[in-house]
Design goal:
Largest sheet: 6 strands, mixed
Order of helices and strands: EEHEEEEEEEEHEEEEEEEEEEE
Radius of gyration: 21 Å
Oligomer: single chain
Mean pLDDT: 90
Number of helices: 2
Strand order of the largest sheet: 8-7-11-12-14-13
Helix content: under 10%
Length: about 350
């Protein structure tokens, strides 16, 4: 069991030798690039236990073969292709005409010695990683939220209300990267340990994510979750939850990270010849109809849909060059003009 330790700030000795405002800091010094790691036996044991808990959460959920977990002195790193083995994209109405393409060298960092902060931290990208290795974003699709916006439902950017998500709670973003914006229901449904006590993900600040009720099976009282959709936890110090209503999932970090700018972000595909990024799609006004996504055993993928009675598609398959794909598209963004090209991670 991971012990929760108090953090005392000021002239009082810090029990973990760490204090946090908006980053890891030591008294009288500016925030370093990495946190100061304590080397007392208790602290080393805490980090080892947190690493073991993260590894166990991935293995118990059945993803040890597709998600690697390695730990250094201050972080666990969850490596994956960011390409889950469940239905993708099907059911989306508010399509951005992007598709899921496996990532390369992706590793999500999770703090091993988490420290609570006084101010929630936000970003316009992932805040956490599911135990299947897929990033978890906040519920919005309109860029980074301000501190004030965290406290007000952003209905115009709500990816659920605007029907941007597939039946599993995710979609492909500007980098043709698949990620979740709500509870990953298909992933949870496939987990052999699915239940109240199952950890479904980890925030980058080191705290776990659970489902819509407490791990002991009791309901979460109204108003118990804070602005980031979390609450205190007796084992880990703090935990996040998914929820039926907004914000649906983690929407900010209540724990410290060394630098929000250093957290992972999957870059857009680039042309195999030259360095141009693959163009970003524009959501067709009013949404599309009948969107389905298929993939065969050879890696040939196709996303098909209609818009105002016309058929559109994005088809792509692995090229000879590793991590590259041959695309053929007919999309609304390009006014239905058929285009081809080779793009790479």
């Amino acid at each position: 069991m991971v012990r929760s330790k108090p953090i005392l700030i000021g002239a009082v000795r810090l029990s973990t030798a760490l204090a946090a405002t908006e980053a890891y800091v030591t008294p009288g010094k500016q925030a370093p690039a990495r946190p100061v790691i304590t080397e007392t036996p208790e602290d080393a044991q805490d980090r080892a236990e947190r690493c073991a808990a993260i590894k166990a959460s991935v293995a118990d959920a059945g993803f040890a073969d597709s998600v690697s977990v390695t730990c250094d002195n201050w972080q666990a790193h969850l490596g994956s292709l960011v390409y889950p083995d469940h239905t993708l994209m099907t059911g989306i109405v508010g399509s951005n005409e992007q598709v899921p393409v496996p990532a390369t060298n992706y590793a999500a960092p999770v703090a091993l010695e988490p420290v609570m902060t006084a101010t929630p931290q936000t970003r316009d990208s992932s805040l956490a990683v599911a135990v299947n290795g897929v990033p978890i974003f906040d519920y919005t699709g309109g860029g980074e939220m301000s501190d004030d916006e965290l406290y007000h439902h952003q209905t115009q950017h709500d990816t659920i209300l605007t029907k941007q998500l597939d039946e599993c709670g995710g979609h492909a973003g500007r980098g043709d990267d698949y990620h979740y914006h709500k509870a990953p229901t298909c992933m949870i449904g496939a987990m052999p340990n699915a239940g109240n006590a199952a950890i479904i993900g980890w925030a980058f600040d080191g705290f776990p994510i659970y489902g819509m009720i407490n791990p002991d099976g009791t309901p979460i009282p109204a108003g118990a979750l804070d602005v980031c959709n979390g609450q205190p936890d007796p084992d880990f110090g703090y935990r996040y939850h998914t929820s039926e209503g907004a914000p649906y999932v983690i929407q900010c970090l209540m724990g410290a990270v060394p630098d929000m700018r250093d957290l992972p972000r999957i870059s857009p595909l680039r042309a195999a010849k030259g360095s141009d990024e693959k163009a970003v799609g524009r959501p067709p006004r009013g949404g599309v109809e009948g969107l389905t996504f298929t993939e065969d055993a050879d890696g040939n993928r196709s996303m098909n849909y209609t818009y105002e009675g016309e058929a559109y598609y994005i088809r792509y398959r692995p090229a000879d060059k590793p991590n590259c794909y041959l695309f053929e598209t007919r999309i609304v963004t390009d006014n239905g003009v058929v285009k081809t090209g080779e793009y790479c991670r």
